[in-house]
Each structure stands twice: as C-alpha cells, then as structure tokens.
Design goal:
This protein is mostly helical. Helices cover 72% and strands 3% of the residues. A two-stranded antiparallel sheet has the order 1-2.
C-alpha cells in the first residue's frame, strides 16, 4: 500500500489561512485603527485596484476551500490559488498607485502590516505550493 500524500491538506491549510487572515486586521491605519480585507472593499471608491484585489483574494480562498470538499472541483485548485495570488498582486499595486491614504499606507506596507497580512501571504504560498505539487 502506498503512503497517502499530505499535499491536499497543505492546500486546505493554505486557503483557510488566506480566508481567516482576510478577516483579521491586516494593515494598521495612520491613526491607530486597523483594517481587514472587508474594510478595503468597503472604503474603495468606484471599485479600484484595492477593491478588486481584495475581492479576488477572498473569492479565491473561499472557492479553494469548496474545491477541497467537492470532487468535481478538485482539478481547479491551482486556478483558485492563482486567483488569490493575482488578487494579492493587484492589491499591492492598488496600494502603491492609488492616491490619498492608500498611497501613504503603501509606502510603509511592511511597517504597517499586521498578523492578518502575514497569514494571507503564508496562506497563498502554501496554497500555490500544495496545488502545484499535487498535480
């Protein structure tokens, strides 16, 4: 009998970290407040890069969690992990190119990052690694 692979579990842990980290405080605001991913969506005017990136991160994570339990979606795990990764890239671009408060936070992104931000980053890395390795 062959040994069962733990790569699907790594993928599941990754997408769970992304979803949980998205709900936790991600960025410390300029006035001592903190914002999670839903705050990015709510505060972004006219959609913009920040809102689109946030939606892609969360949608990729939720769809990735669903794909772990629905056999017909197992082949789409890599796509869902890439959607979250693309959302993260778009979010960073939004922080560095949008004006106002987003640009001020974007210049000091790593200084203002909180544990939710790091959970999302680690989760995306685990999800992509688990999805690529299980193919």
């Amino acid at each position: 009998m062959g040994k069962k692979s733990s790569l699907p579990l790594i993928y599941l842990i990754g997408v769970l970290l992304v979803a949980i980290g998205f709900c936790c405080p991600m960025i410390k605001g300029l006035f001592g407040t903190s914002a999670n991913g839903f705050d990015f969506i709510r505060n972004a005017k006219e959609g913009g890069f920040v809102a689109v990136g946030s939606i892609l991160i969360f949608a990729g994570a939720i769809l990735g969690i669903i794909a772990c339990f629905v056999p017909q979606l197992k082949g789409l795990k890599l796509i869902f992990a890439i959607v979250s990764l693309a959302g993260a890239i778009i979010l960073v671009i939004g922080f560095t190119t949008n004006g106002g408060i987003y640009k001020a936070i974007g210049k000091q992104l790593l200084k203002r990052a909180m544990f939710g931000f790091y959970m999302v980053v680690v989760g995306i890395v685990l999800a992509v690694a688990g999805a690529v390795s299980s193919k």
